[in-house]
Recover the amino acids of this structure.
């Protein structure tokens, strides 16, 4: 039987042993930030924080194919010394979880260069992958707008 870990305010706990949400963020040196590169500021602000990167596999893969393809991507990243975990969350979608979010944009650069990568999402920003070259990004937005409109229309009809 395991007991939940309880932290009291007066306990003498080292910073690294605290849960992530209770740790103080590392200080950001704004003198090193290039204002023309907002990703640099994001990298610095996500240092040491857990972050999730979403990736879509192109085509119409089965969940097994997605598992195999994303496993290859994870292995390549592992060989490049990136400590990530991978979770397949759909027939063509996977989550890559990083313990240090400052590496998320380097991992995004690797993923979008892969043949079967349709898109990668980091912090709500969608980046088209190599497999999305023939698609117009505006079409994807129109498709999601139509889906949202259809859902709203269905809700109205239910009322």
């Amino acid at each position: 039987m395991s007991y939940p870990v309880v932290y009291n305010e007066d306990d003498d706990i080292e910073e690294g042993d605290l849960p992530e949400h209770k740790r103080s963020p590392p200080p950001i040196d704004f003198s090193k930030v290039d204002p023309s590169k907002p990703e640099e500021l994001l990298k610095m602000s996500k240092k040491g924080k857990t972050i999730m990167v979403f990736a879509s596999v192109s085509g119409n893969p089965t969940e097994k194919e997605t598992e195999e393809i994303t496993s290859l991507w994870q292995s390549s990243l592992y060989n490049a010394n990136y400590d990530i975990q991978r979770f397949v969350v759909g027939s063509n979608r996977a989550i890559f979880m990083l313990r240090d979010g400052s590496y998320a944009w380097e991992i995004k650069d690797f993923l979008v260069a892969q043949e079967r990568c349709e898109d990668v999402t980091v912090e709500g920003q969608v980046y088209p992958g190599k497999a999305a070259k023939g698609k117009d990004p505006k079409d994807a937005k129109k498709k999601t707008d139509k889906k949202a409109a259809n859902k709203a229309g269905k809700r109205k009809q239910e009322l």
Observations:
- The CA atoms of residues 56 and 77 lie 17 Å apart.
